Amino acid sequence: MSARSLVNRLLPFDPLPRATIRSRLIALVLAIALPLLAFAGFLIHSNAAQSRRVAEFSALAIARDVAGATDEFLDASAKVLPRLAGRTRFTDKGHIECDPLLPEFHAVLPRIVNIIVVDREGTLVCSAIPFPGGRFESAANEPWFKATLKERRSFLSPPRIGKISGKWISSFTYPIFDTTGEPRGVMTLAIDLVKFEPVMRALALPPGAIAGIIDEHGTVVARSIDAEKWIGGRIGVPMSQVIAPDAPTGQVQTAGLDGVERFHALVRIPQTSWIAYAGIPAGPLAQQERQSRLALYAATVLVLLAAGALALALGRRITLPMRAMADVARAVAAGNTGRRAPVVGPIEIREVATEFNHMIEVRQQSESHLRELATRLRTLSRRLIEVEEAERRAINRELHDRIGQNLAVLNLNLEIVRGQLPADVSADVNTRLADARGLLERTVAHVRDVMSDLRPAALDEYGLDAALGIYVEAFSARTGVAVIYGAEPVAPRLPMMMETALFRIAQGALVNVAKHAHAQHVELTLVATPDRVVLTVSDDGIGFASEAAGEAHAHWGLATMRERAEAIGAVIRIESAPHEGTRVTVDVPRPAL
């Protein structure tokens, strides 16, 4: 079906079959004029009756915005606290240790006055900001402290004046659990209530309107105007008369703390005892209605005049530059970043075209910068790996040259002593001598294992496939996990850095299997082709959620494996699912000879 026939089917009747675009635009303006004027009259007459409902609705919308913004902030704080509390470490005697990074966490939280940790006796353990004179009154009798330990969950305290800052604060608390799941203390974020003021001012409040937060007792927690003056004050109306205990919202017309009569809307903030409120002045509503009437008439006239006068003039000047920018956007999306949009047409479109061209230039610079950073990171990663391996070799040599030789001499001396013992020496002496030699032999075996883990000699002398085979055999003997090893000779050998990286990745994967997988069988394969080498380690263990593999803080071993793979230009894939095992695949291209 052609485009013309499709248009004819959609628009079978055309009242202006010979009209130009200009004529159609003028006809459109005229067709809109009468309904628009009639609609304007309807709005004017209905506006007076609806003014109160509009004010109430506006107040309710603002209160909900305040409640939503506050809920987001408190939810973010509630997520930060468990992470900070989870960093807590305990001494050998079970006492809480102070986190040395606590002041740094406090520095990146602009609305937090302080972060403190107290033990379950209410005694201060540490504070991001020192208390004046180093004095801290025990928190044992504080309601927030008791509630946090009793309910074993986060708790938001009523507003109070902070002992360090002297400002109104409210504390967000969370229990600190030990390894047995018992609460051993409380971590507290002291929220500066004055810092809520920028959030309030960011709201689009009508003239004379006000927004804020109060608690269940009517105490002001935050206020959009003069926050420092009003925070901590109390409104004169009991909350039970404004909002029912089980109601999420409430509305009332009353005078505020400043004596101005307003329509107030209140919204409960979820999971807290706080209530967000907003007030729209009642007095100016009539005046605003009159102003709205005049503005509506004027806007209607201006829209009609502007539409008739500018529709045709702007139509062509708008569509042509926009089409040109669309063509350039498609070219840039296809990878041709050398194209630029013509800077023509009305000023707004010229500004858009200029910014569009600037965006393309920034993209080119960003791509170049990212490529440079990627190159530098790869270089740094390679250098770090080289330094690490050099240190491993040095430690290996030290173990071999010093400890290994000493142990060998010690074994020889024990053998000499055993040979020189008289025949009538007691059985106890022979037993002790045999025990000493057995302990020495086990120590020698342990040292050899450590030397093999640090830098297996087979990797330097015989290559990757041989080193992996020796390591797999030792791993199975040490852990009891059966490993099926299949490898093809890698000839010619890869560069030493590539062999080292692949060996370390395989070593890391097997260590993860031993520590976390609870696997019974592991399969390790090394496939070499003329173009690439593929290393695969798969197990039948408990597995994990695959999306968690990218969280470096939860899987440092996986992150290290990724870094080693990136350093040699390899692609690593980690596939896993709960109770379905894990599969690690490393694909690295051979370097050009």
What does this structure look like?
The protein is of the alpha+beta class. The chain is built from 14 helices and 18 strands. The strands form four sheets. Strands 3, 4, 5, 6, 7 and 8 form a six-stranded antiparallel sheet that branches. A five-stranded antiparallel sheet has the order 10-9-13-12-11. It has a five-stranded mixed sheet with strand order 14-15-16-18-17, covered by helices on one side.
Sheet having the most strands = 6 strands, antiparallel
Radius of gyration (Å): 38 Å
Which band does the percent of strand residues land in?
A: 15-25%
Helix and strand composition category: alpha+beta
Q: What portion of residues is helical?
A: 40-55%
Rounded average pLDDT: 76
**Distance from first to last alpha carbon:** 59 Å
Q: Give the low-pLDDT segments.
A: 550-554
Enumerate how many helices there are, as a single number: 14
Number of β-strand runs: 18
Overall 3D shape: flat
Structural topology:
Blueprint: H1 3-10, H2 21-86, E1 89-90, E2 96-97, H3 102-107, E3 112-119, E4 124-127, H4 143-151, E5 155-156, E6 160-161, E7 168-177, E8 183-192, H5 197-201, E9 210-215, E10 220-223, H6 227-230, H7 239-242, E11 249-255, E12 261-268, E13 274-281, H8 285-333, H9 347-420, H10 427-454, H11 457-461, H12 464-479, E14 482-487, H13 496-517, E15 521-528, E16 532-539, H14 556-567, E17 571-576, E18 582-589
Parallel strand pairs: 14-15
Antiparallel strand pairs: 1-2, 3-4, 3-8, 5-7, 6-7, 7-8, 9-10, 9-13, 11-12, 12-13, 15-16, 16-18, 17-18
